Amino acid sequence: MDPGAILRYGADVGTRNILALLLVGACQAPPVGHTGFGSMPEVTTAPAASTSGTSSGSGSSGTSTGEDSGSGGGDTMSEPPRDLGIMPDFGVNSPVGCKGKIDFLFVISRQANMQYRQAQLAAAFPQFIDTIQSRFADFDYHIMVVDGDGEDNNDGIGWGNPACTALCATPGCSVGDPCCYWNDPDQQGKPCCTDPDYPCQDLDLVTTCDWAWGAGTVFPAGVSGEANKHCPIDGGRRYLVKGQTNLTETFACIATVGASGYDMLGQALTAAMQSNISDPGGCNNGFLRKDALLMVTFIATNPDEDSAGTPDKWAQAVLDAKHGDDKSVVMFAIGGPAECKPYDRICQLITMFPYHHGIFVEEPNYGPGFVEAASLLETACAGFTPAPG
Predict the structure, then answer these.
(1) CA dist., res. 85 & res. 253, Å (int)
(2) Helix (H, G, I), strand (E, B) or coil at 58
(3) CA distances (Å), 288 to each of 102, 144, 253, 291, in order?
(4) What is the DSSP string of 189-210?
(5) Which pairs from 230-235 meet CB under 8 Å and 24+ separation?
(6) For a surface tag, which of 104, 259, 264, 389 has the fewest beta carbons within 10 Å of its beta carbon?
(7) ∠ CA 110-108-11 to the nearest 5 degrees?
């Protein structure tokens, strides 16, 4: 066990008052390649869709495009390869279309064994963006990362590593010193905070939004692979917009949320969908747009067993944010096997939307999965009618 402690920040950004310090343990990560979803064969498609916004699906091995597969049996053949360049013909009364406006939300676990998977995600990102740009003449993006962690009594770490944050007040503290909260004879004299790059010098940049559920990640910190720096987002937002400087590198920074926390993805999604967090004055001011599609990408090595609520409640939060239009949302999950298991609540969630796709987290390359998700975005865009107002 690597002991830690819970530390909380007040609303004053420049003040670092320690309100409580409780010793907690962070379990050692399992070996790379091991996942809580079990040793499964590679899976590249999600279960068949349910057209309801409030009921879970189960299923077949076909990728959903908004139409029922007509089966539901495990031996259902996958659909023929899709011509990604063909758009649906809606006739003279064609919808307005999304005009290239897409809000991308990445919901990323901070649990053990996520370092390698986050690196894979960052590696696949350029291919995904290139694919999207080739499909939309005037691609206008918002891109935000939230992690499955937040301040919630003693259930979430929220930001950084609390023990290392506390030790920032005693620089140079070593194992065996009175200031060190743990003692291992084999580690005598080594730094008490196990990450020498922990950003003690930048604690004045931490705000209440860095602790909040559903707030965009801009300063990932911890001791298990986090970026440990304030990511350079243009305009001081908590999300990236069209024209972001060094887009690929900046995305890699915010997506490197590390493995020092939790994987409550459903809870984080629900928080990010609340109107007050995207309204003026909210942490994510302006992220969700009425005239944009929403694509949500989940990535985790373990099923979400701890989030408050249920998949149908999480789905309803998304529908409320998108004015009841389930066809304005594309869901993509990098996680468990194609056939939803009772414990895989994220899989159950994505199948509540007609446009969804899923791949197994142990896929060696996430790029093809993103390309498939891009085809769903193109289909959704062609039939999109923005919400009024």
Answers:
(1) 32
(2) coil
(3) 9, 10, 21, 9
(4) TSBSSS-TT--GGGGGG--HHH
(5) 230/199, 230/202, 230/205
(6) 389
(7) 70
The amino acid sitting at 52 is: S
Rounded distance, CA 94 to CA 346, Å? 33
Asked whether the predicted pLDDT for residue 59 surpasses 80, the reply is: no
Dihedral, 133, 134, 135, 139 alpha carbons, nearest 10: 20
| pTM of the shown model | 0.77
Tell me which DSSP letter residue 16 carries.
-
Residue % of the chain over a pLDDT of 90: 59
What distance in Å separates the CA atoms of residue 86 and residue 28, rounded to the nearest whole number? 48
Cα 304 to Cα 344: distance, rounded to the nearest angstrom: 7
Q: What confidence score (pLDDT) does residue 19 get?
A: 31
Q: Which two tokens stand for residue 29?
A: 């990560």
Which tens digit of pLDDT belongs to each residue from 373-382?
999 999 999 9
Residues whose CB is less than 8 angstroms from the CB of residue 126 and which lie 6 or more positions away in sequence, other chains included = 248
Please state, as a whole number, how many other Cβ atoms lie within 10 Å of the Cβ of residue 148: 28
The Cα 55–Cα 322 span in angstroms is 17
Rg (CA), the chain: 21
- Written as one string, the DSSP assignment of 250-309 is HHHHHH---SSS---HHHHHHHHT-HHHHSTTSTTTT-S-TTSEEEEEEE-SS---S-SS
Q: Phi/psi zone of residue 246: left (φ > 0), alpha (ψ -120 to 50 degrees), beta? A: left
The more confidently predicted of residues 136 and 81 is 136
- Residue 343 tokens read as 């414990």
Distance CA 181, CA 187 (A): 13
What's the confidence (pLDDT) of residue 389? 66
Q: CB–CB of 170/163 below 8 Å?
A: no
Count H helices and E strands in the chain, helices first: 9, 9
With contact defined as beta carbons under 8 Å apart, do 106 and 299 qualify?
A: yes
The number of residues making up the chain comes to 389
Q: Distance between CA 303 and CA 280 in Å, rounded?
A: 34
